[in-house]
Amino acid sequence: MGLSEIQDRIAKACAEAGRDTSEVQLIAVSKVQPLDRVEAVLEEGHRLFGENRVQEAAGKWPDFKARFGGVSVHLIGPLQTNKARQAFELFDAIHSVDRPKLARTIARIAQEEGHCPELFIQVNTGEEEQKAGVLPADADGFIAECREMDLPLRGLMCIPPVEETPSLHFSLLRKIAERNGLDGLSMGMSSDFEQAIALGATHVRVGSAIFGDRVKT
Ligand SMILES: *Cc1c(COP(=O)(O)O)cnc(C)c1O
Question: Which domains does the chain have, with CATH numbers?
């Protein structure tokens, strides 16, 4: 696999769903990948990447951004409030807004800095104890709360439970987004991005299918 094969598969999934490819952004998830693999994808011209840790992103992206123009990095993993300010410097979007305290911190920093990354609210569609995200039942309330803080909500994000059919979770996420007037849907990974596109994904987060298996650290 690799970047161009994934791009082809995205184009095919869009065609089958009657969607334009420009409606779906491919976030190449570069966490824990050797730098030479990331650099190869940058050399191929890709410019949108995802990282799940602030610290790790801080270690590689300032250099890459200095060398390659037009790079965007999205945070797709949990964010601690004490790292929020650093996240503003590194990321153009945060996909893991999942609690009022974090939303309030982001709102405060946005006021101070005069800008804010695009935000996705993470929904724990599988109601898994160990997983981040607001529960589906709390989503409408939390979305309203974020809107009252004037946060730039782009949409919703989910990570389906590994054991379950992902499309059920993608449908649920879409339903919550629709009833709240949000059109951004960050859903779909290496194993299920085509299903996510069929169900309306606007941002697919694909790691191992582009870069190869993650090297264990
Ligand atoms: C690692 C990760 C991905 C990418 O996973 P792959 O299976 O390698 O495509 C997507 N989303 C999140 C939130 C991740 O942490």
Answer: 3-210 (3.20.20.10)
